[in-house]
Each structure stands twice: as structure tokens, then as C-alpha cells.
Amino acid sequence: MKFLFGNKKDDLLSRLKKQDPVAQKLFYEQNVKRFLNVSKSYVSDLYQAEDCLIKAFCKIFKHIESFRGEANLESWARRIVVNECLNFIKSRKTVFYLDEINHSFHEEIDEPFDFDFNAQELLDQLPDAYKMVFNLYVLEEYSHQEIADTLQISIAMSKTQLFRAKEKLRKIYFQQQKMMKNEHV
Hints:
Elements: H1 9-17, H2 21-42, H3 46-62, H4 73-92, H5 119-123, H6 128-139, H7 144-151, H8 155-184
InterPro entries: RNA_pol_sigma-70-like (IPR039425), RNA_pol_sigma-70_dom (IPR014284), RNA_pol_sigma70_r2 (IPR007627), RNA_pol_sigma70_r4_t2 (IPR013249), RNA_pol_sigma_r2 (IPR013325), RNA_pol_sigma_r3/r4-like (IPR013324), WH-like_DNA-bd_sf (IPR036388)
Pfam families: Sigma70_r2, Sigma70_r4_2
Protein name: RNA polymerase sigma factor
């Protein structure tokens, strides 16, 4: 199908704006796996993640005319996928943010955190509030102000949730490493 558009993104975009089903199929096929991974990083249940993704693609195709080219098309579409997942989470369950805030957490947290196995497996073990803030900050590169605005929480709460997410990920990681070492002994 790539030969139809000659690899020109502008041509693909113009065809998408004309609601060309062939262009829509091509865009879908080029992005579905990556966007499903994004969706699964917010919504753990595969079927619900797929539902969010389908709704996101419908919104992408419906609102493609509003794309102004300020970012690349994939980044714009990814943000729609993330927003669809956040809307799903907000509508389906209550996310509790711990309002106990330790003021020492308010500093910018930029500590490196490396792990060498399935990151999604680790993220799935986080409480929803931690997971959303972690994903938005680390994966989507939102600022704490953008996270606060998106989730309707304070900047301090965003920073606290990120700190707690990182701490919980470290604990889970080291517990799993310890268990793996004990199994090999």
C-alpha cells in the first residue's frame, strides 16, 4: 500500500483529510501496534485498551481536519490515544490520589531508573494514580503543570505521585530480582 502514496506524509495527510478509506487503513496499519502499546500502558485490560484505541482512531479520523501540523501527525494522534485512555479511566473508576503530601517531594525528580525486563509488567503493578502520572511524565513527557491540568490535581500532587511511583517500581523491581536469585540458588 505504501506505493499508493510514494512515502510522502503530506500526501497521506491530504488523503486522510479527504476521508480516503485507503489512507485511513494505511495510517491505521502503520500505527496500530505502537498505539495499542500506549493504550495498554494506561489501561491494563487488553479488551478495554483495544476499545480505547478504536475510539481514538475514530476521533483521529473524524477530527483530522483540526490537525494543523504544529507537531508531527503521529505525535498528535498519540496524544488523542492518551486522552482517550485518560477519559476511559476517569469515567470507569475512581482514581484516588493520596492527599498526604510530604513537602520534601516537591523538588523536581529526575533520578535515573533503569530496569532490564518487561517494563509493562512492572507498570501494571502500580496503582492507577501512580501509573497515570508516571506514564504522562516519563512516556508522554508532560510537565507537572500539564499533568496537573489534565488530571485536575495540584502540581505538588503530580510530583508526589511520580516520586511514589518511582519508589514503588524500585521496590517491585528489587523484590523480583531477589526472588529470581533465590530461584536460581
